[in-house]
Amino acid sequence: MRLPTGIAPCSSTAPWCPPPRPSRPSRCTSAPASCSSREASCSTHWPSTGRPTRCGCRRRCPPMSHSPTLLTPVGRAPGDRAARILVVEDHNLVGQGMEVALRSNGFAVELATGPTIESILAVARARPPAVALVDLHLSGDQTGRDLIGPLNELGARVIVVTGETDRFELAECLEAGAVGVASKKESIASVIDKVCRALDGEPVTALHEREELLSGLRHHRLSERSRMSVFSHLTRREQAVLAAVIDGKSAEAIAHDSFVSVATVRTQIRSMLQKLGVASQLAAVALARQAGWHPD
Asked: Are residues 214 and 90 in the same domain?
């Protein structure tokens, strides 16, 4: 491809724009005096799509077919908003690794390690991010899913970065408002590419994959409701008796704890078995455990 006179391609002949390696982000590092600092802040990589986008360094790195894709200028986002990235990760080593990688690609990065959901949100409110990379399983019983809604309200696009493989949990993240999910097994280059997609307003998780996840979640919930519906016919007293039977208590022990006669408890057990459609207490226990039932 012929370039305009006086413009050098991104190659070894242009020392200010060294050639990037395939599938690895790089950055213009030493532009000549004629190139402004903003123009020197372009980012290039080699994606499979070969789709060119805008670059702030057009005079020195013009878009070319079969050339590195030119991304949104580093540190910028749609609407000319500073591309601040919030990394939410309770493991310091993992979080620091992501922070270093993102900073090396020109993003302004803030690492939030907790220890609570509220403390993480306080950081986000003080300096609202354009994109948030959120770990799903945080310290204790906390979940990154609870951060998705509040971060969306701050204008952030949330990408859940997790080692979780349960498709229903991943679907719940998308349902809560995440623009996509990324596996911790992915390369950092892949995660950065998803950040760039989020900044450009593009789908992070492919639309067909997103629909598959959400459809699977809907069918799973319908199945769960159907499986649990049989227990909804039990009275509160019958539920308490079933819970006691699951704990291994005899009719006599249940009667003693409830201050009622053994005959009353046996009547309640028979009614419970009939409603569950089983013939024995052992079968009732197996059904409850299989369904994951717990008393209200």
From this structure: yes
CA distance 50 to 47: 6
Q: How many domains does the chain have?
A: 3
Predicted TM-score (pTM) of this structure: 0.58
**Whose CA is closest to 73, among 35, 110, 99, 100?**
35
Domain-located, residue 226: no
- Residues 6 or more apart from 56 whose CB is under 8 A from it? 38, 39, 41, 42, 73, 76
For residue 92, give every residue at least 6 positions away whose Cβ sits within 8 Å of its Cβ, in sequence order, or none.
Answer: 113
Q: What is the CATH number of the domain that holds 265?
A: 1.10.10.10
Evaluate whether residue 225 is within a structural domain.
no
CA proximity to 271, closest of 293, 229, 240: 240
How far is Cα of residue 153 from the mean position of the Cα atoms in its chain?
16
- Tell me if 21 is assigned to some domain: yes
Residue pLDDT tens, the chain, 296 long: 444 444 444 443 333 344 444 444 444 444 443 343 333 334 333 333 344 343 443 333 333 333 333 333 333 444 334 589 999 998 989 999 999 999 998 899 999 998 899 999 999 999 999 999 999 999 888 999 999 999 999 999 999 999 999 999 999 999 999 999 999 999 999 999 999 999 999 999 999 999 999 999 999 888 878 778 889 889 999 999 999 999 999 999 999 999 999 999 999 999 999 999 999 999 999 999 988 888 87
- CATH number at 184 reads 3.40.50.2300
Report the C-alpha gap between 124 and 118 in whole angstroms: 10
Pairs from 194-199 (Cβ < 8 Å, separation ≥ 24): 194/159, 195/85, 195/102, 195/107, 195/131, 195/133, 195/159, 196/43, 196/71, 196/72, 198/130, 198/131, 198/157, 198/159, 199/72, 199/76, 199/77, 199/78, 199/83, 199/130, 199/131, 199/157
